[in-house]
Design a protein that fits this description.
Helices cover 40% and strands 17% of the residues. It has helices at 19-26, 30-38, 45-57, 64-71, 94-109, 126-131, 148-155, 180-193, 208-223, 238-251, 263-275, 309-324, and strands spanning 76-82, 113-119, 138-142, 161-164, 174-178, 198-202, 228-232, 257-260, 285-290, 303-306, 332-334, 337-339. 41% of the residues are buried. GO terms for molecular function: DNA-binding transcription factor activity; transcription cis-regulatory region binding.
C-alpha cells in the first residue's frame, strides 16, 4: 500500500525529496521538521513523534549534505600523507596502511568521512590549498616528512590540524606521536645487551621521526663502552632499501647488530643478510621499529619497538575534535615499548 499522507497535499503518495516537502505534508514549518528529525531544539514530544512517524512512513531520510551545508560543515576530515623526502613511497606501505585504517575507523565512529590524499609537494602552498578548499572540516597529517616549515605556515592561520610525528621545539602545529628518541635508545640498548658491539643504523634522518630514532641510537652507544655505531641512509621503499643494504653488507666488516628505522627496512635487512649467507640472529641481530602485525611473521620473527597506533589514532582524532570545538588540545607523546623476538635471539621464536 502507498504511504498515507495528509489529504489535499500536492505530494500525496509521493516520497518527499527534502525537508521542505516533508514540512508541507506535515503542515508545519521546515524548522519544526528539522528539530524533530535531529532531536535539537525545543519541540513537544507529540509533535516530534508525529513528524518522525510520518518520515518513517514516507521512507524519508534527511540529506546529510544539505544539513552540513546549513551548519557550515562538510562532514569530512582530510587525511594527508606528504612525501617530500621519499617521493616514490606508496600508501601501500604497511605503516601507512595500519595507521590510516585506525584513523579512518576512529573518524567513522565520530560520524566523519576520511578524505585521503597522498601529496608529493611541488611548492610551499600545497597544504594551504587543502585547508582552504572547503572540502574538509579539519586535517590530520600523517608524518612530517621534510615539510615542517609548510606545516608551521598553515598552522598559523588554520587551527583544526594535527600531525602524526615528532614534537619539535618552536613549531606551531599540534602533534601526536611516539617518543622516537626513547624508542631508538631502547632498541640499541637491547642489541648491546644481546652482545652486539659493532652496530649500524639503517634509515633516512631527513624525516624528523627517523632523526630522533638515530639520536636515541647514538645516545645508547655513547653510554656504552667498547661499542661502535655507523649510519646508513636507507629509503623506505622496499626494493630501493634492499639494494642499498645489500651493497653495504658487501663492504661492511663485522657488523653484528642492526637497528632499522622501520619494520619494512628491517625485513629488507633480513632478506639481504640471508642473500649473503649471514644468519639472523646467530651472525647479525636485527631490530625494527613500529611492531606492525607483519613483524610477528617474518623469518625469524622480528624484534621491534612498538608504537601503539590504535591509541595514536584515537589521540589524533580526539585532538582534532577538540580543536574543532576551539578547545585547548596539548600535543600527545606516546611511550614506546620493546617487543623482543627471535631476530635478536630473545622473546618469541
Amino acid at each position: 500500500m502507498p504511504p498515507k499522507t495528509r489529504p489535499g497535499s500536492k505530494t500525496a503518495g509521493a516520497r518527499p525529496q527534502n525537508i521542505q516537502e516533508l514540512a508541507r505534508i506535515a503542515g508545519v514549518s521546515t524548522a519544526t521538521v528539522s528539530r524533530a528529525l535531529t532531536g535539537a531544539g525545543h519541540l513537544s514530544a507529540a509533535t516530534r513523534e508525529r513528524i518522525q512517524k510520518l518520515a518513517a512512513e514516507l521512507q524519508f531520510k534527511p540529506s546529510t549534505t544539505a544539513r552540513n551545508l546549513r551548519i557550515g560543515r562538510t562532514g569530512a576530515i582530510g587525511v594527508v600523507v606528504p612525501l617530500g623526502h621519499e617521493r616514490t613511497q606508496h600508501l601501500s606501505d604497511p605503516f601507512f596502511m595500519t595507521l590510516i585504517s585506525h584513523v579512518a575507523d576512529r573518524l567513522a565512529d565520530q560520524g566523519y568521512d576520511a578524505l585521503l590524499s597522498r601529496v608529493v609537494p611541488s611548492d610551499g602552498d600545497w597544504l594551504d590549498r587543502i585547508a582552504q578548499s572547503g572540502r574538509v572540516d579539519g586535517i590530520i597529517v600523517i608524518g612530517q616528512s621534510d615539510q615542517a616549515r609548510v606545516l608551521d605556515q598553515t598552522a598559523k592561520t588554520y587551527r583544526p590540524m594535527v600531525v602524526w610525528g615528532s614534537q619539535i621545539a618552536g613549531h606551531a602545529y599540534h602533534t601526536v606521536g611516539s617518543d622516537n628518541r626513547l624508542g631508538g635508545r631502547m632498541a640499541t640498548e637491547h642489541l648491546i645487551a644481546q652482545g652486539c658491539r659493532k652496530l649500524a643504523f639503517f634509515g633516512d634522518p631527513n624525516a624528523p621521526e627517523v632523526e630522533e630514532r638515530l639520536r636515541g641510537f647514538r645516545d645508547a652507544i655513547e653510554a656504552a663502552e667498547g661499542v661502535a655505531g655507523a649510519l646508513l641512509p636507507v629509503h623506505f621503499v622496499p626494493q630501493m632499501a634492499l639494494t642499498t643494504i645489500s651493497d653495504y653488507l658487501g663492504i661492511a666488516d663485522g657488523v653484528d647488530g642492526i637497528f632499522a628505522a622501520s619494520d619494512t627496512i628491517a625485513m629488507m635487512t633480513i632478506q639481504a643478510l640471508a642473500d649473503r649467507g649471514r644468519a639472523v640472529p646467530a651472525d647479525v641481530k636485527v631490530v625494527g621499529f613500529d611492531d606492525l602485525d607483519v613483524a610477528r611473521h617474518t623469518l625469524p620473527p622480528l624484534t621491534s619497538v612498538r608504537q601503539d597506533l590504535d591509541k595514536g589514532a584515537k589521540a589524533l582524532v580526539d585532538t582534532l575534535l577538540a580543536l574543532l570545538r576551539d578547545e585547548d588540545a596539548p600535543s600527545v607523546l606516546l611511550t614506546p615499548t620493546l617487543a623482543p623476538r627471535a631476530s635478536t635471539g630473545a622473546g618469541d621464536r
